[in-house]
Amino acid sequence: MPLLVEKIAEGTVIDHIRAGAGNRVLQVLSASYPLSKMAALIINAPSKKFGRKDIVKIEGVFIDEKTANRIALISPTATLNIIRKSKVADKHHVVMPRALSGLLKCPNPKCITNFERAETTFTHVDNDHLRCRHCERLFAPEELT
User: Fold this and answer.
1) Residues 6+ apart with CB under 8 A from 96
2) Taking the CA of residue 59 as centre, how many other CA atoms within 13 Å lie in the half-sphere pointing to its CB?
3) How confident is the model over 41-90, as pLDDT tens digits?
4) What is the DSSP-derived secondary structure letter of residue 44?
């Protein structure tokens, strides 16, 4: 059965989100942008590549690099499709950056960033871990979002 979701004229479609992670992606987007126009969350859509996937469509929103980095933490397989005049104008995969500064809070309650005015920085160790520059603890991406 085909998916019946209205097309958007201008905006962003985030495709290939890990199944079950679409709601978290939508939370990240709503924290960064006013979702005053149409927004759609499709959960557990069939995918030839992954079996199941989530999709988020947002009209009138074009995602910046900082938000794309946060989406990469949630779902490294996500694809950003920029829609202009109801057609895909640009398409690219989210990429986990080598370092994330000022985006996330360190979950370690003893980390200095939770007591003093210090910008958090996490370095990408591997696909499963990021390291806090200040307390040097390793965290899974799910712990940071």
Assistant:
1) 69, 72, 73, 76, 124, 127
2) 12
3) 999 988 888 899 999 999 999 999 888 988 988 888 899 999 999 999 99
4) E
